[in-house]
Design a protein that fits this description.
Helices cover 36% and strands 32% of the residues. It has helices at residues 14-32, 76-90, and strands spanning 3-9, 35-39, 42-46, 52-57, 61-67. A five-stranded antiparallel β-sheet has the order 1-5-4-3-2, with helices on one face. The longest helix is centred in the N-terminal third of the chain and has 19 residues, at 14-32. It is globular. The N and C termini lie far apart (30 Å). The model has no long low-confidence stretch (mean pLDDT 91).
């Protein structure tokens, strides 16, 4: 299974970053389908095509790991770019 891993430092604080992560995953699920779950500081999602991922939110760091289902593996670079653009917009660009 192809995996996308994006890790970023942030200065939002855990509570604000958690709220942002939950909102972003909600929007992604509405856009592409699937379901979202929240367990403490981990926001997870799963799609029927086998794609699943999780965002782990810490006080000053966020880790996004997505395991792509077979049907979307060819879109890995597009999905990675979209995740990075979203992080740039909401968290800040990588220095």
């Amino acid at each position: 299974m192809k995996t996308i891993l994006v890790e970023r430092e942030h200065d939002l604080g855990q509570e604000d970053c958690q709220a942002l992560a939950e909102d972003l995953v909600t929007k992604w699920v509405k856009r592409i389908g699937g379901r979202k779950t929240i367990d403490g500081n981990v926001v997870s999602f799963k799609h029927i095509n086998g794609t699943r991922g999780e965002m782990i939110i810490e006080e000053d760091f966020i880790s996004i790991e997505i395991k792509l289902g077979i049907l979307v593996r060819s879109l890995r670079s597009v999905i990675t770019s979209e995740i990075n653009r979203t992080c740039d917009k909401h968290i800040g660009e990588v220095e």
